[in-house]
Amino acid sequence: MSRKTKFQAPRLPKEQKLAIALDYVNSDMTLQETAEKYGISNFRTVWKWVHHFGLREKMLSLPNENDTSIMRKTHTEIPLTEQESRERIRELEMELGIAKMQVRALNTLIDIAEEQGYSIRKKSGAKQ
């Protein structure tokens, strides 16, 4: 008896999977376009990697900063001059404004979904 074996693409290292998932999240490409770019036969594979690595999918078109730049800004070792302090305060106020816009956008999204009959917010006293 001969068995037909299903073709399996070679497994990619975790680093490469992460790089592909990050490329999707940080670009304007769709899942399908990202899969085609890297020769992946099924776009759902890219989607699985995005969720496996805990990356957020594209939701809002707000400025995107990577984690290292935020870490660098919040952990300074050298005392700042008055001008640098003012500049830093201005940056923080801008980041706070963006965060507030994100919260407002998400709350609006939830409100619209609930108007259409989807229950999203946790109800008080709900069983767990």
Number of helices: 5
Number of domains as seen in the coordinates:
2
Total count of strands: 0
Q: Specify the structural class.
A: mainly alpha
The span between the termini is: 53 Å
Major sheet size, sense and barrel closure: none
Q: Share of helix among residues?
A: 55-70%
- Return Rg in Å: 22 Å
- Assembly classification: single chain
Q: State the order of secondary-structure elements, H for helix, E for strand.
A: HHHHH
Relative strand content: under 5%
Return residue spans where pLDDT drops below 50 for at least 5 consecutive residues.
70-76
* Shape designation: flat
What is the mean pLDDT? 78
How would you describe what is shown here?
With 128 residues, the protein is mainly α. The protein has two domains: 12-58; 60-119, no CATH class. The chain is 56% helix and 0% strand. It contains five helices and no strands. It starts with 13 loop residues before the first helix and ends in a 13-residue tail after the last helix. Residues 70-76 have low confidence and may be disordered.
